[in-house]
UniProtKB/TrEMBL annotation:
UniProt-listed PANTHER family: INNER MEMBRANE PROTEIN YPJD
Cellular component, GO annotation: plasma membrane
Residues of the Cytochrome c assembly protein domain: 39-262
Residues forming coiled coils: none
UniProt source species: Photobacterium aquimaris
Protein name: Inner membrane protein YpjD
Chain ranges passing through the membrane: 6-24, 36-57, 63-84, 91-117, 123-150, 176-198, 210-228, 237-255
Keyword set includes Cytoplasm: no
GO biological process terms held by the UniProt record: cytochrome complex assembly
Lineage, highest ranks first: Bacteria, Pseudomonadati, Pseudomonadota, Gammaproteobacteria, Vibrionales
Superkingdom of source: Bacteria
Annotated GO MF terms: heme binding
Entry keyword set: Membrane, Transmembrane, Transmembrane helix
Pfam family, one: Cytochrom_C_asm
Length: 265
């Protein structure tokens, strides 16, 4: 049954990719409506599948692959709705490929990490905030990579304005920091909620998550300070964004990856 949902969802993600990629390599305009409709169908099927994979009679199955798939569909949803307002075509191939791969992996490689969030509403709030903060900052990381690519092309004196699907460098930078501010705010609330809502957040096995998340928060704090107070741009912004994303990824998935994928327990 899950495969009957997964295969069409992957197919619709691929169709969305095929509608976007040719426009990135030519001067032809990308039509927003077909991409949006196709992606929404893929996302709807993705969410339907996750409902079956995560929600069960014994509790919520938040295995590492299910969580990765959930994050990927959140990122896909946010970026898909963003195309109605912004030129973010450059991000979509990565976003939709990531969503399709995670969806397929979660379906083909089932794991188990059962929780009971219905009896812990405070934990549900904390996890929801963590998912949205991580997803938002991952979108910011993709923006940072786009910024680095545009900066590289401009320094090599290659004109990018000919292609109407590629946004100007300064527009990408402004959008990047708007997204970082939103993600930073969500991460701040996540850390605060973890301190108040999760009683054993500093218990063995969770200390590293709190420390790594706090280090990522410090990096994003320095990045925002450096940009708005010291005028940081370019490579420094990209490297700080990547460092923050790397620390958050270690915090959210590091130990779970070792336990569930490498050790298999």
């Amino acid at each position: 049954m899950d495969m009957l949902i997964a295969i069409p969802a992957v197919c619709f993600y691929i169709i969305a990719l095929l509608l976007v990629v040719p426009g990135l390599t030519s001067n032809n305009g990308i039509k927003t409506q077909p991409v949006f409709v196709t992606a929404i169908i893929a996302i709807a099927l993705h969410l339907l599948l996750l409902k079956d994979l995560i929600l069960g009679a014994s509790g919520q199955n938040l295995s590492i692959l299910n969580v990765a798939s959930l994050i990927s569909v959140i990122v896909a949803s946010l970026t898909t709705f963003a195309i109605l307002k912004m030129r973010i075509w450059f991000l979509l191939p990565v976003v939709y490929s990531f969503a399709a791969i995670n969806l397929f992996a979660a379906t083909m490689l089932p794991g188990a990490f059962i929780t009971h969030l219905e009896s812990q509403p405070q934990a549900f709030i904390h996890i929801s905030l963590a998912l949205f903060s991580y997803s938002t900052l991952m979108i910011a990381t993709l923006y940072a990579l786009q910024l680095a690519w545009l900066d590289h092309k401009l320094k090599r004196k290659k004109s990018l304005q000919i292609n109407p699907n590629i946004p100007p460098l300064m527009m990408v930078e402004r959008q990047l920091f708007k997204i970082i501010i939103v993600g930073y705010g969500l991460l701040t609330v996540t850390l605060i909620s973890g301190y108040f809502f999760i009683g054993d957040i500093i218990a063995q096995g969770k200390t590293h998550k709190a420390i790594l998340s706090l280090l990522a928060w410090i990096i994003y704090s320095v990045l925002l300070w450096g940009h708005y107070r010291q005028g940081w741009r370019g490579r420094k912004v990209v490297w700080f964004s990547l460092a923050g994303a790397f620390l958050l990824t270690l915090a959210y998935f590091g130990s779970r990856f070792v336990k569930e994928i490498i050790i298999g327990s």
